[in-house]
Amino acid sequence: MSSYAIGSLVVHNTDWQKEYSEKMPVLIRQHGGTLRARASVQLLEGTAHLPGTTVIIEFPSAAQARAWYDDPAHVPLKQLRNSGASFDLVLLDGV
């Protein structure tokens, strides 16, 4: 069953983005993941506080998503991202 890593991002500065955007897609692919969406969210109903950008990454399984997240190569990328953005990440199993 597919699992989806869904990240909400608020960018404070863009200094980190070039290096991050070069390295993160490679790491995602190494774990069988595919970027499905990266865009601003449009609020259709309610009063939710929305992030600047939301990303959705599909993985073949929750185990592969966790392997991507826990990969030692991910640690410096997390630190890089956190140097210029606030980020929340959830994992959601598909149906």
Distinctive features:
95 residues; alpha+beta; 3 helices; 34% helix; globular
Can you walk me through this structure?
By secondary structure, this protein is an alpha+beta fold. It has a domain at 1-9 and 54-90. It contains three helices and four strands. The protein has helices spanning 17-30, 62-70, 74-82, and strands at residues 3-11, 34-39, 53-59, 85-93. A four-stranded antiparallel β-sheet has the order 2-3-1-4. α1 (17-30) runs antiparallel to α3 (74-82). The longest helix has 14 residues, at 17-30. The termini are close together. The model has no long low-confidence stretch (mean pLDDT 96).
The radius of gyration computed from the alpha-carbon positions, rounded to a whole number of angstroms, is: 13 Å
What would you call the structural class?
alpha+beta
Estimate the strand proportion. 25-35%
Low-confidence stretches: none
Task: Report how far apart the termini are.
Answer: 7 Å
Write a concise synopsis of the structure shown.
The protein is α+β, with helices and mostly antiparallel strands and 95 residues long.
Spell out the blueprint of helices and strands.
Blueprint: E1 3-11, H1 17-30, E2 34-39, E3 53-59, H2 62-70, H3 74-82, E4 85-93
Antiparallel strand pairs: 1-3, 1-4, 2-3
Helix pairs in contact: 1-3
